[in-house]
Specification:
Helices cover 60% and strands 14% of the residues. It is α+β, with helices and mostly antiparallel strands. The longest helix is centred in the first third of the chain and has 55 residues.
């Protein structure tokens, strides 16, 4: 009789532990869903807002060769053109613009030398 009661108690405790584990997994899944939902709520409007700005202004991409002067850096040249009235609309931030400049000029890093020419892109209204 004692062995049977003990066996039932062990079965009850195992079932209780299984339910606790299932409850914990459920709560973690709900938390993950909430985090994803919050992320999407805050990120989607920013992307939509950025694309709507592009639609409002018709622009044309223009390329220009720039001679690197002593003291210039890729960052300083990029900031001269990124701050343009229209260029900032087409990039998430200046780092995206710098990535494009590096790609256009086949630069592996941010090092540029005075006297060299690099091509920059910027946007003009059509």
């Amino acid at each position: 009789m004692y062995a049977e009661i003990r066996s039932q108690k062990i079965a009850y405790l195992k079932e209780k532990r299984r339910r606790e584990i299932m409850r914990t997994k459920f709560l973690i899944a709900i938390a993950v869903i909430i985090v994803i939902a919050v992320f999407l709520i805050f990120m989607i409007p920013q992307r939509v807002g950025a694309s709507s700005n592009i639609e409002q202004v018709n622009t044309q991409k223009v390329y220009k060769s720039v001679e690197v002067q002593a003291g210039d850096s890729l960052w300083s040249i990029a900031s001269d053109y990124y701050n343009d009235e229209y260029t900032h609309i087409h990039y998430d931030d200046i780092n995206d613009y710098i990535k494009e400049l590096k790609s256009m000029n086949s630069l592996k890093d941010d090092v540029i030398h005075s006297g060299a020419n690099i091509t920059v892109a910027y946007y003009m209204p059509v």
